[in-house]
Write a sequence for this structure.
């Protein structure tokens, strides 16, 4: 208990020294869950404020990504709280005009929506948005195709695969294309056995 208290005191001092730092606050929340210590609701309020109003940097992405992963593991963060954090991140004015980071933030929210909430319909909409914002980033379209295949929307998956094949992106490769083709074909074959969209999505 004393060691845990010392660790939390360390994170609190770090926050006091740099009140714009998001990583320290996220780490404090995770550590409290890990050690089965009380989590102050004020920490989430402060994290939400920083995600929305502080100057955007990679720390924003890393903090919410780590909390989303923790929520699938040992952090009993309420879903409503996590969604408020994601919404705060997406409202950060620093994302405007930065398509790469904006799409990445939306993609993180999409993975959370599918993997944590099992809400494929909403996750699908978010992945479509990521592709729309950053169409030259093929990973978002690859993931979109996977989601469509898992949802048994095969015609839509085929259409997105055609868009992938037409892309002139330098990181396009035949291995991804062939893997996607195999996935669609396998899921189509299995669709007669089950129409469930339960499960987890891997990026």
């Amino acid at each position: 208990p004393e060691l845990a208290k010392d660790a939390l005191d360390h994170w609190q001092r770090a926050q006091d020294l740099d009140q714009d730092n998001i990583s320290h606050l996220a780490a404090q929340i995770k550590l409290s869950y890990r050690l089965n210590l009380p989590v102050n609701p004020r920490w989430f309020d402060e994290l939400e404020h920083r995600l929305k109003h502080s100057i955007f940097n990679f720390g924003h992405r890393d903090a919410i990504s780590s909390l989303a992963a923790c929520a699938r593991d040992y952090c009993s963060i309420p879903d409503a709280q996590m969604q408020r954090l994601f919404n705060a991140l997406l409202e950060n004015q620093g994302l405007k005009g930065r398509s790469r980071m904006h799409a990445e933030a939306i993609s993180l929210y999409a993975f959370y929506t599918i993997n944590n909430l099992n809400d494929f319909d909403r996750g699908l909409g978010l992945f479509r948005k990521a592709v729309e914002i950053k169409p030259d980033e093929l990973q978002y379209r690859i993931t979109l195709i996977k989601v469509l295949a898992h949802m048994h929307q095969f015609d839509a998956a085929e259409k997105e695969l055609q868009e992938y094949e037409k892309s002139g992106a330098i990181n396009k490769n035949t291995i991804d294309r062939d893997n996607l083709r195999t996935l669609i074909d396998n899921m189509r074959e299995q669709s007669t056995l089950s129409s469930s969209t339960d499960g987890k999505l891997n990026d």
Observations:
- The chain has a mean pLDDT of 86.
- Residues 54 and 176 are 37 Å apart (CA to CA).
